[in-house]
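Today's session is about reading a structure prediction critically. Students often jump straight to the picture, but the first step is always the sequence itself: look for stretches that repeat, for charged clusters, for runs of hydrophobic residues. Only then move on to the predicted structure, which in these notes is written as discrete structure tokens rather than atom positions. Here is the chain we will use throughout the hour.
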Amino acid sequence: MIVGVYGDSDTGKTTLLVQLVSKFTNEGYKVATVKQTKKSISMDTKNKDTWRHHDAGASLVVFSSGCETDFLFQKTMSTPEIIRRILGFGCYDIVFIEGTNDQNIPKIQVGTGKKRKNTIFTYNDDFKELMTIIKKYLKVKPSVPCLCISVNGKNIPLTEFPEQIISKTVLGMVGSLKGVHNINEVTIQLKR
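Below is the predicted structure for this chain, in token form.
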């Protein structure tokens, strides 16, 4: 499920998003977040090594340190492209997008201001009610095995039945392989 959070500056969007992430994570959901802004800012710093890599022509630069790994794309992306790439990193129950304006994404408005298309709730310090609304839209339970399939770069949505059949088949086959124990995650990549 993808949920947007929007509102004017200093209305508490980030504070609310942090509360939502904390609550859903504590309940066992796997959560990803995106922060969008209209401002033209960059995480990269001119003349630093990663900037020099981009400047030389790399379209993707990865910065890896002892505490994190950052993927820096030297281009803007649409919200669906961002979501597709996030799902390439793994299965997430919920993706929260702070600042989204995509009209197809259900959104929570924080504060007053112009209401955006597909706003499902206006938040006014009623966190319990907000959780109820989001869970109504949420179609998965926490800690349920998650299967993501992408064909030719396009994510294929699965209902519960095919997800269970494919998951159980793959787990059965992989589990029978020599040296495989305690399967928590399986990655299969097939190219033709």
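Discussion point for the tutorial: The chain has two domains: 2-41+75-137, 145-192.
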